[in-house]
Each structure stands twice: as structure tokens, then as C-alpha cells.
Amino acid sequence: MIEIYETQRAMRNMRKAAMQRGVVAVLDVGTFKISCLVLRFDGTDSQNEVEGVGSMAGQTGFRVIGAATTRSRGVRFGEIDAMQETERAIRTAIQAAQKMARIRVDHVIACFSGAAPRSYGLAGKIALEGHVVTEHDVARVLAECDVPDFGFGREVLHAQPVNFALDHRSGLNDPRGQMGQELSTDMHMLTVDATAVQNLAYCVKRCDLELAGIASSAYVAGMASLVEDEQELGAACIDIGGGATGISIFMKKHMIYADTVRMGGDHVTSDISMGLQVPTAVAERIKTRNGGVVATGMDDRDLIELEGETGDWEHDRRTVSRAELIGIMRPRVEEILEEVRERLDAAGFEHLPSQQIVLTGGSSQIPGLDGLASKILGQQVRLGRPMRVHGLPQAATGPGFSSAVGMCLYATHPQDEWWDFDLPIERSSVRTIRRAVRWLRDNW
């Protein structure tokens, strides 16, 4: 646990140093595409004023000066499957973005989906030594959170305090400087498969780049797609990508739950390819141009030319009705949404004051998806696009770029994480030893 804390803290410091030099790149490693944005900072940085970051610190102005996208290769279910192919794709995206920005980039902040994320809610409580809450008290109460045994081969990706309470006053964002007797906190911790993180870090290193931060795609897509009221009152962001569908729930402007469904738009394309007996490239084009999930009376007469390239003229010049295409696509889309509903039910989403659901990601653009989602999920559903950031090209403003834009916000306006504070590590280690002794005494 101490090693994870130190690694994340080192990456945080590296990111701050890169931002002070003025340039950093963000990388969205997806199953369908790899996107890279190069950010330049204008120097209005107030993070030097306080030790913490995010809501407890200032913000940084930035501008996108380079953007590039390439077809993803070697990534499956949001995780790296073929190292050399992924390295080649990342190099292509980085070099194209650097060429547009006319500057060399040394540090990148990456996000990825998949890796079987799991959410944990932790709580900690301490008695204040003085009457005024200090930075050291915040660090002590975070160290008091009893971390569960999340299993071998898992890494902590995010560990964010989502609420502070001082005596009987709850809902505090920043308790420092306030007076009280007892300080308590609630923290959300997200763990992922360690192998997926290590593969991504190694791949970035092979590209001669320094990894200055890493985040969950579901988290950053929610940051970019949810408006302020939705983040405050409670909303879920469903990021439907190519190989995985990310789920994140926000409340009081903090992520309180995240999960991933290992299905996405590529599975719909694969169904079309097998159902119509056409190559994957043709199936993707048909899905993009003519796809949908709600059939009308006109769709039986709306014929689609398959335009295959097998050399068999009769096979290549076949036509299918749009109703047949919808009949292939709808069952898979329904399956994805049913899986999403199961995860939302398990998270207790129905107990939030507001139950808005926002669909984003490249595959959310299927016509009629929002109507089908409102029937299956039974909530208020809207299609979300990422908020506009300064200098972002028009081609990168669609739902497919929610994670990339969210990474810009994550890099420049980060929320507090556990490793932003100087935790009393020695005390935490002693508590771990005591817990081990207690377990031995109880079980042997």
C-alpha cells in the first residue's frame, strides 16, 4: 500500500513539474481509437499557494495546441493485448499531435477503460489535537481510513475524500481552518487490475515518454460530460466505447462509484459482420451510416447495398433492408444496457436525489439509443457531449472525445487524492501490524 502511495505521489509531482514547464500531453487509449491532445498552460497557476490540489487548490488555464487521433491497434476490452501494435499506434498519435503543436512532448497523462475496476467506500475518524483543523489533521484522518484487503494483483487508481464532517456538521469540502473536536471523512477508493496498469506504463515508457498520471476513462468521461448540477445532485455517466462501457456515478461533484461492462460498439460491429457475412470494415461503415435500434414502417423498404470486396459479384452486390440491420443491432445494444442497469442497481443508484443518466462515448451516437436506454434504465436519459475547452478542434468535440477532454480537466483541475497529503505512514504501518496480530490471535 505504501508503494502505491509513493508511486502516485511521484507521478503527481512529475505532472506539476511538467505543467510549470508549460506543456503536457493527454492520451486516451481506447479499443477503437487512440487520441492525443497537447496542452499549453498560460501560467495562471495558483497551486503554489496550498499543498493540496483540486477543490482545495487553485486552477490552471490551458489551451489545446495539438490534437491527433489514430485507429487503435493491439487494445482489447480497453486493455493492451499486443504491446508492439499499441506502441506503434501511440507513437503515431503522439507524433501527429506534436507536429500540429510544433513542440516536443516529454510527459503524458493517460486514461484507459477496462481492468475490472472495483469501488470501495472507506471511513475514518480522529479526535483533533487542537481546536483548528490543519493540513496535518486532514492527512491523519485520511490515514485512519481502514483500507480493505482488495486482493493480490490489484492497484489503487483513485482514492478521493468525498466528504468531511466536523463534529455534527457534514458535507464539508475543505475543513481546514475550521474549529471542532472530532474530524471524520468518507473516501472513495477505486482499484483496478495491476497488470493492465503496468502494461500501459511500460508501453508509454517504450514510446520514450514519461507517465505523469493515470486515470479511469469512466471517471474523466463523467467530468467532461456531466454539467455542474448533475455532478452536484447525482447522475450517472455511461461511456459506451468500442470494447468496453464505462459507468461512473457522481454525487456532490465527486465520483462515488465506477465500473466497466466488457462490451461496446465493436461487439455490435462483430454481430453485423457475422449476421450479414461481410468484412468488419464494411460492417463498421454500415453501422455508422445506416445503423439504429428503433425500426419504423419505412425501414422495410429502405435497402442498403453491402458493397463487399470478395470478387464474387452477386455476393458483393447484395442488399439488405434497414429493418434487418436494426434486428441484428438491437439485441446486442439491449444486452449492454441490461448489464449497465444491473451495475447501477448494485450501486444503489435509485437512492440518489437526482437520477439523471448521461450517455456518451463514440457508440452512444447510434440513432434511437437514448429512447431505448430510457425504457431499459427507467430514468431520465440524455446524450452528452464533452464541454468545450479552449483551442479544441471542431473534429474533437463529439461524444467519442469525452475521455480525452475529461483528461484535460483531470490534468489541470484535479480533485484531491489521498496521495496529495503527507500521510503519517509510520502510524499507518503500525496499525497494519496490529491488525495482523489481531487476526493471528483470532484465527490460531
From TrEMBL:
<dbReference type="GO" id="GO:0043093">
    <property type="term" value="P:FtsZ-dependent cytokinesis"/>
</dbReference>
<dbReference type="InterPro" id="IPR043129">
    <property type="entry name" value="ATPase_NBD"/>
</dbReference>
<protein>
    <recommendedName>
        <fullName>Cell division protein FtsA</fullName>
    </recommendedName>
</protein>
<dbReference type="GO" id="GO:0009898">
    <property type="term" value="C:cytoplasmic side of plasma membrane"/>
</dbReference>
<dbReference type="Pfam" id="PF02491">
    <property type="entry name" value="SHS2_FTSA"/>
</dbReference>
<dbReference type="GO" id="GO:0032153">
    <property type="term" value="C:cell division site"/>
</dbReference>
<feature type="domain" description="SHS2">
    <location>
        <begin position="24"/>
        <end position="225"/>
    </location>
</feature>
<comment type="subunit">
    <text>Self-interacts. Interacts with FtsZ.</text>
</comment>
<keyword id="KW-0132">Cell division</keyword>
<dbReference type="InterPro" id="IPR050696">
    <property type="entry name" value="FtsA/MreB"/>
</dbReference>
<dbReference type="InterPro" id="IPR020823">
    <property type="entry name" value="Cell_div_FtsA"/>
</dbReference>
<keyword id="KW-0472">Membrane</keyword>
<dbReference type="Pfam" id="PF14450">
    <property type="entry name" value="FtsA"/>
</dbReference>
<dbReference type="InterPro" id="IPR003494">
    <property type="entry name" value="SHS2_FtsA"/>
</dbReference>
<keyword id="KW-0131">Cell cycle</keyword>
<keyword id="KW-1003">Cell membrane</keyword>
<comment type="similarity">
    <text>Belongs to the FtsA/MreB family.</text>
</comment>
<comment type="function">
    <text>Cell division protein that is involved in the assembly of the Z ring. May serve as a membrane anchor for the Z ring.</text>
</comment>
